[in-house]
Batch of 2 targets.
Target 1
Amino acid sequence: MESIIEDFSEPRKQSASGIVVLFANSFQKTVRAVALPLVFVVIKTKGTGHLGLILIAVFVSIALVLAVISYLRYRRFTFFLDEEKQEFIINEGIFNKTTLTIQLNKIQQVNINQSLIQQMIGVYSLDIDTAGSEKKEASIKAIDHETATLLKQKLLSRESDSIEETTASFDAEQSTTPIEAPVLKLSTNTLFKIGITSNYGASLLLISGFIFGALQLFKDYTDAFEIEREHISAAITKGFTFVSLCILLVFALIVILTTNIIRTFLKYFKFEMIRQKRSLAISSGLFTKHNTLLKPNKVQLSAFSQNYFQKKLNLLNMKIRQASFDEANTEESKKTDIEIPGCNIAERDEVLKMILGQVPEKGISLKPNYRFIFLQCMIKIVLPVALFIITGLIHQPYRAYFWVMIPYIPLVGTMLYFEFKRHRLYVNEQFIIKRSGIWDVEHEIIEPYKIQAITAKQYFWHKKADVGHLIVHTAAGILHFKYGNYTRIRQLVNYWTYQVECSEKDWM
Amino acid sequence: MLDFTNATLDTNSLPKYEEVSLTALHHKYWNVVLINIAIFLLIIAAGLVTLLILSTGARTYIYIIVSIYLVFAVLLLFFYRLSVKKRGFALREKDIMYRNGIIASSTTIIPFSRIQHIALDEGLFSRIYGLGSLRIFTAGGASGSLHIPGIEIAHAKSIKELLMKQINEAR
């Protein structure tokens, strides 16, 4: 190893400028908490004079107290690396001393981030994500980039050393010569393409929320000024000609695309993926820079997806999922998802090769039974249509809307058909790949030795048809294959149990 | 990788999970279920009685309410009986499996090497009959975990010990 070994074995403090960061953070929090009561006080004491003076005094005293607290917190905050015990230790607390001990092999991810304040001062924060049912998250608030990178490498490389000792065979195939050139780099052009072709759903939700908000505002406004709404709504409905509807649609489309593009740029600006020793470093972001270090053997599930437009542009979206221990907290598990918003097939294969050791091939395919589409048709087409017709027969006015069924039935029917067509399971010795989706076609890849549990399920009325369901549980979620041939599913369950129980590889 | 030379594997010669004979839950477990159902039904009955006392309008439907209640109780008993009958578990050399479900029969298999931790619970009523329930957790979260009720406490303890031994060996 290099000369940095001693560096972290002694307890050390954060950068001195950490005081500023700590101060700014607590000041921000306090102001946020105090603002409302303060406004109240100001209104109450209106007219008593000296108001400005009192306010300034209050703010100054708050700031002084916070400054002292920040200084003390800075003084008390130390961290060091215990090489022998393989632990990273953080001491903190002014009155109540807390010692946070993190075992290196429990570290899941180390992130280097920079908020706006930190960017101004020129320091970074280092956050450590740990695996474990008890949630222990550590964060160093002010650290310069060099130290942060070194410490990050230290925290993660130590751990890979210990893995080296236990599973030497697994490491052999992983140890490729370190290359510093980025594996993947997203150009502005690609970001633009991503913005145009993905995340329609999320943006649509955002915009409809916005429109509803605007409508509510409009309503409040007309109520407040007692404008005759009849008048306006009459004008609106009159104006709703076909042409204006088209213009509205085009406008909505433009808004969706713009928000999409802006979001993509904010999140993935300067997206870069670099190979560092045996891990992958990913960095991105326009205002807040986000750095993530990923260990390939910690990956539980990798997925890539593509829709029709993306296919035409040779663009893929990848998701890499690590073990998420906090099932209840979905936001937390989302955070461990690492997304590569855009890459082409060659780049995808490169990334997959790094994570899985090889480019996974699709093995024998399993198709779902036609019952898959049958039940869905019943629930999504026959039932609503029947209900609609019945209500229409009872209540006269609904009959005028019967035409809605004309586009509804073929639309839903086509969607179901595609869902059925794309629902596939591919199995070979090394990989299980599940394909699914209607518009975005997703492939989820897992390695059998990373399976945690398997469930086979069959409804009693499917016994004769030999149809059943398969659920594969992994530490990063489940794979659900529906309406498969049950004899085949049973064979697979036996085969995978055999594989898991024979495997010498560590799943994490 | 060294001992992993499985060129052609006859999947049909692998041990078949579907042919394993399962151990049914302890017969006293039905008593525990009965107590729970009784409590549940009593609470509903109490609610209905207060409704009948307070609202005179509801009293005209007294026969309908009582008959619905009775049908509900019988159905509840019937389905629970069926459900308890359908449940069973088995320990193999390298994994544990549990089957349950009336409408959908589902079998879950957890290899010993994937167990994270095990909990042995003794409920209030279970303890009267000397029963306990085993909960087996994996990293697969709630969906990938097992809950096996109605095992004789001594048996449950020995299973737990066996599993603990297997886990420690696997590590």
Target 2
Amino acid sequence: MAEYHLQGPLTDEDVVKLKIGDTVYISGECFTCRSRLQKYIFDENNVLPFDTKDRNILIHNGPIVIKENGKWKLVSFMPTSSIRFEKWGAKSVSEWNLKMIVGKTTMGAETAKMMKEKKCVHVSPRSVSPNLWIDSIEVEDVYLYDELGRIEAAWFFKLSDIGPFIVDIDCEGNNYFDQLDGKIEERKQAALKELGIDESFEFTKLY
Amino acid sequence: MIKTEVYEQALFETIKRGATGISPDVKDAFIRAIEKESHADAKKGLQATLKSMEMSKTRENPLCVDTGWPIFYFKVGNNCELEGGFVELENAARRAVARATELGYLRATMKHPLTGYDPGNNIGMNIPDFTYQFVDGDAIEMSYAAKGGGSECFGGTRHRIVAFADGIKGIEKFVIDSFVQSARAGAVCPPSVLGIGIGGTANVAANLAKEAACLRTVGSKHPDPMFAKIEEDLYEAINSLGIGILGAGGDTSVLAVNVEYAYTHIAGIACATSTNCMVARRASTRIDASGAVTKMTSPNWFGDR
């Protein structure tokens, strides 16, 4: 498994070399998004008020940002479960020309298919460690603050070598967690057997 | 009589401590997990998480960006007297949550379920949530638990009525199947503190599971050997699966498995699970009738465990 230190905005070349299981650290401009933003744009027919051409990394997160001495200060930051916006995943990748989504729980088949077509990857955190990251994140700006609120607004961050993240969907449509599922299932059957629950066990159907 | 200003300040301090400080039992469980972890990346992940949690104590910032559902548990002495009574206790808890949110110890996470309206202070219909237990004496013990969105929304909280015909095997299979599904790709933020409620009506089982996940001392055992065996068997079984920190592979998938039970109906066994995320936020405080305030290292909700 390789380790990469990537600088945004990302190019196709940057992301096609990434394979599932690789480790990445990220620098450069990104924006935060929660599903409220996608609902606002794609379902409620609003226009994204910024250009993602030079900001093609989406971080799925609702950060805690406070104002201190007239300046925004990041208090906490942790990527969260991307599967929540699977409904708009493919659309986000294609219409916003994303090259990377940073989030938890990986994403579904539709998004992975679009990622393969458009050359985009999904990466997941290896730890819950906001304090190791917040000093390396600069809050640049915020959009849709009044419309979506402080947590679900689109924050512009500048990252300095944030990581590690594991590549869980690559540009070939492979999913790290799908591959892990098979191994976990095998171990689960062995663990159940150890507890005296063999494969023929069926729940009595009460409903 | 315990003065309002005393319990309100104690509530605020409990929320702040729960949101920003790792509990000693959770820290010990992390140290044990780091020692035994054989996957290099998982070990680094556990170390980074523990380091970040320890930094939160000094920085006085949240352990995780999601500061969860605000939930209070009050273990109240039968002769405990509070200025303004229990209505004022709940009002004080609401004021303390709002103050903690304003100061950035909590994220404004609670919103209207249909309109999405965000009051900005984590206060709304039936939130915060309050649970009471009555005991002898004149003191009050107050626990604050912050149940995270990941651990609650992605299948960590489940329920099934298991037939008596299926018994312990049915219960254990239900728990293992549920946990594997909910921990996939790190959805419930493993390694989890897994709470299991057995018996009662469905809501009783679910409440017991939540309390077992949020209020039991990590590393404690159920005093009844029958339930202690289920805890131990499931702890070993789940940690053999290789799910690991954030589901990316590793030796520790659960920090603890805690079982609590209630008698049930002859018709079936309600069984519920509740996972608490790895940061397992909580804090507890005791106030004696004299007004003396003591920080507790563990909730003491289940007495000896």
